[in-house]
Amino acid sequence: MSTTAATVARHWIDGQWSDSGEHRDSVNPATGEVIGSYAMADVKEAQAAIEAARRAFADPAWRTDRLLRARVLNRMADRFEERTDDLVELLGRENGKTHDQGRLEVAFAPETLRFNAALALTDTGTNSQVTEGELSMVVRQPVGVAGIIAPWNSPVALGIRSLAPALAAGCTAVMNLPWQTAQTNSLIAELVGDTPGLPSGVANTITGGHVSGDVLVRSPDVPTISFTGSTATGKQIGAAAAANLKRVGLELGGKTPLIIFEDADLAHALPIVVSALIVFSGQFCMTGSRLLVHERIADQVRADLGERLSAVKVGPASDPSSEMGPIIDKPNVERIDKIVEDAIAQGATVIVRGGPVADGPLAAGAFYRPTLLEVHDNSMPIVQDEAFGPVLTMQTFSTEAEAIAMANDSQYGLSASVFSQDVDVPLRVALALESGSVWVNDWARLHDQFEEGGFKGSGLGRMRGFAVLDDFVEFKHVRLRPGTTPAA
Ligand code: NAD
């Protein structure tokens, strides 16, 4: 099977490619050029995929054979590894990621698949002789069809982050991948769907948006939703899913604070601050977007960071010297610039204006240069709301308590970084932050064996780690009463 042979990127339903009525163009955000076309899922395709997954779940072959699931997930991992270059190339052309950043994303997929292959084998419940002659045990059973909804900013890593545990648990799945990355989705569908040993209908992939996503959320045949996307959409999904008392795992937006204490090693910290802003062009849930700096080092940070951000080389993935690619499309460039303009009108001071690239060879693309603004009011929208672009605010603090209070004064709680050479301060601050992940002298380091997710408006439940299976299993308590004396 080959996706490149197909002229239109299609869905993968019930073990085969499937078309749909509406075809649209895929566009390279760095150039505005059409790079292919794709079939867009509507209600019909979503329902067909759910039906295929429902039938596959009814057959015990998949849900009762954990060795098969582990084998298949490991094979899937090999397939993603073997096609890394193709995935990176597609992410560059369709999603704007530089090749280094594409590799960063793609590398997650095999690691996550392998970890979940191992998790499939850890299916041990608990049991106990609760009282003499009476036993209790708990059995974990897959919930059924998992609805997976992933955003366009990292379709490979985030689609697989939900799919792998769903399959490990014994669920079957429908992945609703975003239309913005339809060409990439098609390769994901091929690598997942055509894995030797995977029964037809177990893993279905459609390219769609809110219409097909909503079908998954409302279907009584889909008992669990694993959603990654914005907080606003997460709330809508939670509300809609409540009608069927559906389980929801929500990985939502963030406004990651980067806290730099007076004793931090700036030569180490500032390049990390730059990466935290420019990786995926700031379109990353964990983008470092709020810089909190001790007042005694503020002048030095302002000058040094300003220079570093002004020097970031913006360009297409096809140019190996590019350090940051484009935004996903031009409307998002305008949206981000309006946020910056509003912040300046509300009193933010410009350190680096950055902004849309309007002249020269990059003008046809959706490029936005990194922007750094200094603010003094934590309640400003530029501090409180996700910009989802390379826009960083800088604020100063004088005490540890003030830094913690500023960092926590947010609807979000996804992640945070603390920079200090002290032994106790970063640990104390990490424990006080309302945040699902905290990195000390680092940023965005994720490992499959450790849970990832959000406090407050950044989500519900956890991805990765052992907790990831909770979105996909039911716990069943079985009570046995063999008695203490043999039957006569
Ligand atoms: P979004 O919430 O607008 O949409 C995400 C996907 O949800 C879409 O591709 C669409 O298919 C689907 N969708 C939209 N409305 C829906 C509805 N009402 N019902 C069902 N499905 C619906 O997000 P986006 O703009 O595509 O992605 C960016 C957002 O994702 C940012 O807020 C970012 O922080 C967040 N994100 C979070 C994580 C995380 O792990 N916490 C990771 C990446 C991105």
β-strand percent reads: 15-25%
Q: Distance N terminus to C terminus?
A: 64 Å
The tally of strands reads 23
Please give the largest β-sheet: 7 strands, mixed
Helix content: 25-40%
Across the major sheet, the strand order is 15-18-19-14-13-20-21
Number of helices: 15
Average pLDDT, to the nearest integer? 96
Rg over C-alpha atoms, rounded to the nearest angstrom: 24 Å
**How would you classify the helix and strand content by structural class?**
alpha/beta
Low-confidence segments, ≥5 residues, pLDDT <50? 1-6
Shape: globular
Bound molecules: nicotinamide-adenine-dinucleotide
Features:
single chain, 488 residues, alpha/beta, seven-stranded mixed sheet, six-stranded mixed sheet, 15 helices, 23 strands, 38% helix, disordered N terminus, binds nicotinamide-adenine-dinucleotide
Description:
The structure is a single chain. Strands 15-18-19-14-13-20-21 form a seven-stranded mixed β-sheet, with helices on both faces. The protein has a six-stranded mixed β-sheet with strand order 10-9-8-11-12-22, with helices on both faces. It has a three-stranded mixed β-sheet with strand order 1-5-4. It contains 15 helices and 23 strands. By secondary structure, the protein is of the alpha/beta class. It is globular and about 85 Å long. The protein starts with 7 loop residues before the first strand and ends in an 8-residue tail after the last strand. Helix 3 packs antiparallel against helix 5 and helix 3 runs antiparallel to helix 6. Strand 4 and strand 5 form a beta hairpin. Nicotinamide-adenine-dinucleotide (NAD) binds next to strand 9, helix 8 and helix 9.
